[in-house]
Amino acid sequence: MFRGGDGNGLVESANLPVDINADSDVVWRTPVHGRGWSSPVVLEGTIWLTTATEDGRSMSVLAIDATDGTVIHDRVVFENESPNFSHPTNTYASCSPVVESGRVYVHFGRYGTACLDSKSAETLWERRDILYDDFRGPASSPILQDGRLYFSCDGVDVQYVICLDARTGETAWKVDRRIDYESDNPDRYKAYSTPAIFEVDGRLQLVSPAAMETVAYDPKSGDELWRVRHGGMNAGLRPVMAKGLIMVTAGDGGTSLVAIDPTEIDSDGYAKVVWSNGRMVPKRSSPIVVGELLLMVSDDGIVTCRDVISGEEFWKERIRDDFWSSPVSDGERVLLCGKDGTVAVVAAEREYELLSKTQFPEGFNATPAIADGAIFLRSISHLYRINQATE
């Protein structure tokens, strides 16, 4: 799923290369038709990704052999007669798929959610009745946990979180948001975040950022556990957790970045904010935690490294302009991919060290996938394989 099996972008069993050459290090490059910012996901030697026509009338899934880049499946999942408007900076295939043994789950926002057989790519079930007006196109990715599929639906008309039975596609629960948006402008109600499930004091919690607030739910029942008010709209992140704190960015406006203690909840149901920061915080890219370090790259390409527990800033450096892709790491190095084709590797340390920076011919909006001894990079129109370091 989005940001790997644990959803945090960290694959400690990997070995990212210190230097990446845009020519000699590319094992293969496979064209991907249409447009899509969804991230590739990998399981059992197969890469899955979604794409769509620019007008949104046709939405497809591709399966690609991880070894040689051969396209195994390329099939249309949904067709739409009159799609709603999608912002030119977005696509109709910006929600990343989820894969498990035997099954692939694809989600295109209001246009449909489907479960496919991973061998044949045939549809096992589909839902086209989970409706909301995303206003700028779909972007919230689903997550899979214990046989259930979860995703957020924060539109300008309705806002809710939904849980589906992954085997049947039937709704297990659906909970409306109860948020005071402090505005009559519905544009301020929308968000594009991906939820995350964390264990807190031995209990699982589904944490789902929205406009103005982040809310935690019981994954089994949908009952609310706590909330935090941080302001903002258009949040596009996936939360991360480390050292007992949950880190959330707020999108456009608001406090931008908050560190939440989910064990301290007041009488009104609000969790404690341990620290917050409003400078150089990404609106689209998700943060990553490596050890006790919180690293993130702002939309304008400034990488910041902070202490998870205190929020203290250790360093900040500009890599390049325009970053939407989320960073990934092997625990020692952090890989960053920019909208202009920049691919940089920095050390995950308290002192800044740029290990390498190279230029690809196309830009990156999708987050890389790390699997099968390789890094898979999705650019505007291609999927690349780059092998991990051997030493």
How do the strands line up in the largest sheet? 1-32-31-30
Which spans have pLDDT < 50 for at least 5 consecutive residues? none
Rg, Cα atoms, Å = 19 Å
Roughly what percent helix? Answer: under 10%
Shape: globular
How many individual helices? 0
- The mean pLDDT is 96
Please give the largest β-sheet. 4 strands, antiparallel
| Strand count | 32
Distance between the termini: 28 Å
* SS content category: mainly beta
The percent range for strand residues is: 35-45%
Domain Pyrrolo-quinoline quinone repeat: 22-127, 159-390
Protein name: Outer membrane biogenesis protein BamB
Organism: Stratiformator vulcanicus
Give a written overview of the molecule.
This protein has strands at residues 26-31, 41-43, 46-52, 58-65, 71-79, 98-100, 103-107, 113-117, 123-127, 143-145, 148-154, 159-165, 171-176, 196-200, 203-209, 213-217, 224-229, 240-242, 245-249, 257-265, 271-277, 288-290, 293-297, 302-307, 313-318, 328-329, 333-337, 342-347, 354-359, 369-371, 374-378, 382-387. It is an all-beta fold. It has a domain at 1-34 and 325-391. The strands form 8 sheets. A 4-stranded antiparallel sheet has the order 1-32-31-30, with no helix packed on it. It has a 4-stranded antiparallel sheet with strand order 2-3-4-5, with no helix packed on it. The model has no long low-confidence stretch (mean pLDDT 96).
